[in-house]
Amino acid sequence: MLALYEYTAGRLAEMLRTKETSSVEITRSVLERIDAVEEKLRCYVTVSPEEAVKMAEEADRRLAAGDGKPLTGIPIAIKDNMCWKGHRTTCASKILHNFHPPYDSTVVRLLKEEGIVILGSANMDEFAMGSSTETSHWGPTRNPWNVEMIPGGSSGGSAAAVAAGEAVVTLGSDTGGSIRLPAAFCGVSGMKPTYGAVSRYGLVAYASSLDQIGPIARDARDIALLLNIICGHDPKDSTSVPRDYPNFSNSLDKPVKGMKIGLPREFFDKLEDPDVNRVMKDARQIYRSLGVSFVDLSLPHLDYALAAYYIIAPSEASSNLARYDGVKYGFRAENFDGMIDMYCRSRAEGFGAEVKRRIMLGTYALSSGYYDAYYLKAAKIRTLITNDFRKAFEECDAILCPTAPSPPFRIGEKMDDPIQMYLTDVFTIPVNMAGLPGMAIPGGFSSDGLPIGIQLVASHFEEARLVQLSSAFQKETDHHLKRPSL
Amino acid sequence: MDYEAVIGLEIHAQLLTDSKAFCSCTTRFGAEPNSNTCPICLGMPGVLPVLNRKALEFTVKMALACNCRINEFNRFARKNYYYPDLPKNYQISQYELPISENGFVEIETSQGKRRIGLTRIHMEEDAGKLIHDETKPVSYVDLNRTGVPLIEIVSEPDIRSPEEAGAFLRELRAVLVYLGICDGNMEEGSFRCDANVSVRPKGEQALGIKTELKNMNSFRFVERGLQFEIDRQIELLKAGERIVQETRLFDSATGTTASMRSKEYAHDYRYFPDPDLLPIRVEPALVERLRSELPELPTEKKLRFVNEFGIPAYDAGVLTASRELALYFEETVKLFPKPKMVSNWIMTELMRRLKGEEHGIDSCPISAEQLAALLRLVDEGSISGKIAKTVFDEMFDTGKDSSAIIEEKGLVQISDQGELVEIARKVLEDNPSEVEKYLEGKTKLMGFFVGQVMKVTQGKANPAMVNQILMEELKKR
Amino acid sequence: MKITTEQVEYVALLGRLALTSEEKKKYSAQLDDILKYMDMLAEVPTDDVEPMAGPVKLFTPLREDKVEPSLSVEDALRNAPAVAGSSFRVPKVIE
Fold first, then answer.
1. Contact yes or no for C66 and B26 at CB 8 A
2. Are A385 and A302 a contacting pair, CB within 8 Å?
3. Which CATH class for the C5-42 domain?
4. How many inter-chain contacts (A to C, CB under 8 Å) are there?
């Protein structure tokens, strides 16, 4: 018999409809689980148990009144970079350690309208800059499968919480792999939707042209349920795309027979890790058995994506993070001499090392005399990468590739080697550069028992196809059903 | 050696939209600091901008009125610099792809007509306000103004004198006000001007080293600031010294400019396309609609006034300086079709009173109908011009109709032949020695007799009739 | 060297970051490594390529010019580290 916190959102929603349980019971079960394992894992920045129970009570009233929506009463955690009115939203940074937004982000508004129970905010790399959730001002989150290991980042808290049962589902954000990488490293499913499919209003910006909110959950079905809530046009976000978003749950049981999956050689040429290679081979085998055919293809500019990303993202970040200056909100240094010194000290004391590194990198790339060689060059290469993908999708329905070059690594292992850390995102970044939807699902385990994810990528606004492919995969496999012992 | 000045102006004009450029806060300024702010204009984490349609349309109107080319595809860029009145520490502006380029305006100067080129007109957002404490080392930040839509108008370095700069600014201001897109108030900062100034030997083509002048918040200060800076630069060059490229602040108290050496101004703006806003498309159909909505602009109107009403160019210039004044003039002429007389009355009596009370025509207590009625009474001879001026002042003070004032004060002109003859005879009888001298040939005394009649009638006698009657009565003697 | 310590100092001032001399050394070395890695971009011919500012191929939407309520002054200032009356308080800005 599973405890309530171990079920998927889809299953719990059924149980709520049949009155087998209540939202308060589910919420209490998850809160007890948080009490039991949070100290070990540090998935959260802030948990608000009293408020969660109140929201659960309200959800139960709604359900009793027959006013429930598909996920009414299901407990969720949001990443600590999504503004929730009146609740501390810190981006895991000292500079926002006490920031209480006076407004709701659009995703939080949508969750509230659905009647979802918000448990609190999940830990992350500071300002979503990182691949390991080690740069958090609140300390690192640990991988539930092995607490010596990183959970991946930057949405490490969100992914680890789902894996550990500290939330039923969560929201993360993905700028260069920040949903898919931790989902893969924690053995759960995570999707970065198409850029423009989910409103960014209220998502604290890291790199505006790359950031996208997406769901993290135990299976494709829960991913679809969350996409149904968060995808949609928002007039408050000028980059939000107006279109009819489908009911993603309708794709869960569609057969994949006859679909064509592309295997870009640039992804696989680089693959050295034997475990990851094995998992990828197994995945191909499963899809083949489902009647999917494969096509080898090339994305010639893929090798430049990482370098271009580490110009564009820091450039945008250097500007997005300029507002943290100790004037309107957040941290202000205690001792300073005049206005400029107040800025410099507040920012130096308020930001961590990785954030400062990226601010300087981005400032440099935009500065007089370097703009053409760095920012402009990278923006042009971004066009080439996007064109590569467009051509690839003329030949296939989706792309299959690894999520990360290796299984999760040790805490501290790459902290002093930025480039090695950046290379963790080498397979996820190209997807953000082109604004495509990408999904990571559990594909197997390393010889050390650590999760390894596979990645599926589709053309713009083809999230439904990713739901279809991942659901088909999960019907054939049980990797997503495995739970870490804590 | 003779020097000439080379001046380019950068003008910022606040647009008269109801809400801000990228959020829905009001643009009206509350008395309380930070009362018109929201997460977006406060630059809070996570917020995003959405462009105000009116701000775009107003900018296109100005660009069309200034003969600019509209760039169908343009975009916003971020201008990055730290300043406490700029909450995001970047300003949403336009850089590589502005909404409009390559325009011009024509101005009249003492040297005749000149065309001043416009490099560009682009959209951006305003910053907030800083108040510096007089006694403590602190400043206070009020972000009510933050995010109010602005247009920046950048001229070519085509201006050669402070006088031309003044004429150019007045012309731009008149166009903005005519379009109804800016109130043009320089003192309150809704219309602001910075200048780039350099000097060079006359005949030289290459540009000299320029300085940037700021803090000139009236037309007069712009002209004074420029003159001071030009003189300063010429003196430096004559003394064999070099001009330092820098930003200088005009001090209205001393009429001088001084260097602003703060390192806050070491700028490297790092412009790049704003990823929170997509490219802007100004559809040709929108441009055509806005073009068709353009009102008659000051220059065209002035020309029409000269041709249609036969008034002097100078008068036409004064009357068209504001759209409301021109409208007032035209409405009055419609009711009383003697344009020269209307123009004279507006330019002398009305302007005198408006200036004294520091009123604009929109707050003039005398309506066009009331003015026309007054002028008709003068024209018909019901009252003399002199009395009309008294009546006018009374109208201005009370807002009453001329007929009511004339009746109340008994100011109607005496044009009764019998009454006037009687008065004339009495005057002649009372002044026998003057009559004798007149009859001996001292005809200049006619003025004396007229004056006496006027004195008796308190100025109400019809002057033309008085002359005629006196002449006849004297002949009889 | 792709980036000198002086350039790091300049960039840190532009980005308003106070750095210790140790940090300057560390960041100079790290940024240098990163910029060397970026060198690979130079080998891609991009003369005829349009730069891409973002993935959405639409034009910016326009909002109607309608006023909506602002925050209360209290909410606007609630998160501020230093306030005086209804204003944010900062060290004196010298002009």
1. no
2. yes
3. mainly alpha
4. 162
- According to DSSP, the β-strands at C83-84 and A438-445 are unpaired
What are the catalytic residues of A? 79, 154, 178
The residues, ordered by sequence, that sit 6+ positions from B32 with a Cβ below 8 Å of its Cβ are C73, C86
CB contact under 8 A, C92 and B52: no
Alpha carbon separation from A463 to A46, A232, A438, A458, B418 (Å, rounded)? 31, 13, 8, 7, 104
Q: Does the beta-carbon distance from C95 to B249 stay under 8 Å?
A: yes
Give pLDDT, residue A167.
98
Separation in Å, CA B218 to CA A348, A475, B74, B189, B214: 42, 76, 32, 9, 12
Domain ranges of chain C: 5-42
3-state secondary structure of B476: coil
Which residue is associated with the tokens 């996208």?
A212
The neighbouring-strand residues paired with B203 are none
Domains of chain A (ranges, CATH numbers)? 4-259+396-481 (3.90.1300.10)
**Is residue B187 exposed (0-12), middle (13-18) or buried (19+ Cβ within 10 Å)?**
exposed
Going by C-alpha positions, the residue among A481, A10, A62, A475 that lies closest to residue A225 is A10
DSSP-assigned states of every residue in A85-137: TTB---TT-GGGTT---SS--HHHHHHHHHTPEEEEEE--SGGG--SSS-S-T
CA nearest to B181, candidates B191, B171, B195: B191
Does residue B356 register a pLDDT over 80?
no
Q: Which tokens sit at B235?
A: 């003196």
Whether A318 and B80 lie within 8 Å, measured CB to CB:
yes
Chain C positions touching A339 (Cβ under 8 A) are 90-94
Of the candidates A191, A43, A190, the residue with the CA atom closest to the CA atom of residue A123: A43
Touching subunits of B (3+ CB pairs, under 8 Å) are A, C
Whether C59 contacts chain B with CB within 8 A: yes
- Please indicate if any CB of chain B lies within 8 Å of the CB of A328: yes
pLDDT at B276 over 80: yes
| Chain C: partners with 3+ C-beta pairs within 8 Å | A, B
Residue A451: strand pairing partners: A445
Whether the complex's predicted ipTM is more than 0.90 is answered with yes
Q: What is the pLDDT of residue A164?
A: 98
Summarize the confidence of residues B201-219 as an average pLDDT. 92
A201 in reach of chain C (CB within 8 A)? no
Cross-chain Cβ contact A329/B264 below 8 Å: no
> Cis bond leading into A154, ω under 30°?
yes
CA distance C77 to chain A (A): 7
Euclidean distance between CA atoms B53 and A111, whole angstroms: 30
Distance of residue B309 Cα from the nearest chain A Cα, in angstroms? 52
pTM for the whole thing?
0.91
Taking CA atoms, A43 is separated from A76, A92, A113, B132, B218, in Å, by: 13, 12, 25, 45, 60
Q: Centre a 10 Å sphere on the Cβ of residue A338 and count the other Cβ atoms it contains.
A: 15
pLDDT in tens, B240-274: 999 999 899 999 999 999 998 655 456 899 999 99
A420 touches chain C (CB under 8 A): no
Q: pLDDT at position A447, please?
A: 97
Instruction: Please state the rounded mean pLDDT for residues B424-443.
Output: 89
Q: Name A424's Cβ contacts closer than 8 Å, sequence gap at least 6.
A: A131, A132, A152, A177, A181, A404, A405, A406, A409, A414
A360 to each of A210, A319, A320, A396, C1, how far by Cα in Å? 19, 11, 13, 40, 16
CB-based contact, B73 to chain A, within 8 Å: no
Residue B2 is which amino acid?
A: D
Put simply, whether B33 touches C (Cβ < 8 Å) is yes
The pLDDT value given to residue B108: 84
* Token pair listed for A452: 């390894």
Question: For the packed helices A353-366 and C5-14, what is the interaxial angle rounded to 10 degrees?
Answer: 100
Low-confidence ranges of chain A (pLDDT < 50): none
Cβ distance of C87 and B249 shorter than 8 Å: no
